[in-house]
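Much of our argument rests on the idea that a fold can be written as discrete symbols. This step matters because it turns folding into a mapping between discrete strings. The record that follows shows the chain in one-letter code together with its fold in token form.
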Amino acid sequence: MVGSKNVAIADPVVPRPPTTPCTVTLFANQQFTDYSAKPFSYAPPSNCAGPWQKVVLSIDFNLSGTRQFDRSAQMWLGGAIVYFGTTQEPLVAPPDSTKWHVERDLTDYSALFTANQVGHTDLGNFVGTSGGVTYNGIITGTATLSFYPVVGGVRQGALQPRPDAVLSLNASATNGLSYLHKPGDQFIAKFSALPTNIERAFLDVYAQGQSDDEFWYFNLPNDIAGVFGDNTGTALRETLVLIDGQPAGIAPIFPWVFTGGADPILWRPTPGVQTLAFEAFRVDLTPFAGVLSDGKPHALALSVYNSTNYFAVGGNLLMYLDHGGNKVTGSVTSNTLAAQPTVNVNENVTVSPDGSTASGTVAVTSNRSYAISGTVNTSHGTVTTQVAANIAFSSNQNLQQTSTTYVQDAVQNTQIDLMTTRNAGGNTTVVHEQRAYPFTFKYEQVPTAAGDGSYTLYTYVDQEFAQQVAAPANGYAVAVASRDNHVISTVTRNYNAAGSLVSAPAASVQLYTYFAPFGACYSRQIASQNRVLSSWQDGGACLPGVNTLSWRDQYSQAASSAVGSTVQLLP
């Protein structure tokens, strides 16, 4: 509500069917005060057998105390990662606590939930004194799975096809993320036996930068990184997927910013885009379905271009099987994806002979265009799939350093254009997805006009996730749906000549919109001033009186049926 200092986000919750779900509690009031994994057990709901119309994971976090860093959190079930995000830093003082809620639509992971499973949560959190500083922030969490049954009169059509099998790349005794510490590092997952009737395959990929790679979008060319106290490798990072050593897809990396990023005031009370719940990037591996079905061992690998120290990576392999046969054949017929990107660096920086001052600009661009095609011979005929991609990355940094001034302004964008074409029995269907990750981050420390040693530290972040998908749907030749999540935050810290903080005015705004051609429209805008929620508007971008999301994403269902992809436009 307006006036609150607690977490406020404009993101919608997962829309749910109007039926009573069966709810399974994975853990309740679990405390996270150390770095040990917290195990839990899962059993399918006895009174709610699948298939389910929808499966929703809900997690409620509570942070008590006044001092704590942001922490990474993952949840694993049956070896698969089902949640990945970071935590909010403290916003309120005792006796109040900082609270936030996250949800994930796990309907595509339904195959995991049909049998008993073991799981655990990784949320390393230090409580105690270190270096003379006491960290008293205790994090507590409760997580549930809600299963919505298919009920006559409510189902409204066939269920969207779901993957028949979900396998984790990170399956091991500990089921944890893997870490890439230097350029060329690969995480390799080996599968001794995959199903022999894979018709479609997708890989949900996570890649999160930490340590020296936390602010990878500020990284500079090797020769000047040290001058500005920054890290090396330029600002380009992307995840390469390999199958048996062959490039199989690219997962561009979204520039997530944690709630301690640059200046914690930026994220009070509204965190950045996806900060509390990351979204995996889904890579279509269907051109390799015939190869993966050959009954031989296979290795899937992830690498991050120019990873320094370090990227945490993980993922899940989702497979749709040929229900009419237990053996399919096929091959990759063409593949133009290169293992390394072509990177152009335009460096125009002047450094004084003693290295004490420096200024200039650095521009980095990379453009990838590739197409991968494959065939699979199924019980219902030969199916050909082509995945064509154009990915354009750009980064422009303005730099200045003197004894009294430090400026690093970065303007970055990743534009992704994906075209998936599927031909089955002479019927050709196409899904066209476009994404953009525009991102501006300014960090400027400059002296005031008084010239007495007083200065200001200004931080500005403009972060956006934009997505549009076009596909044949429900009688339409082409239907288009889109969503946009946009956060802008600013803080100006004013320091006097003695170096003491005098004031820190701050402001933020988040606008989340979703549009689909079947009547769904969602819009919410929130704003804050000086770390307090100041306004809240629903439906501003929709028609008057309309601000709803369909519990059954008709658009996603249509696109999935058309091409076999699992397009997800909702959380």
Observations:
- The two ends are 22 Å apart (CA to CA).
- Confidence is low (pLDDT under 50) at residues 554-571.
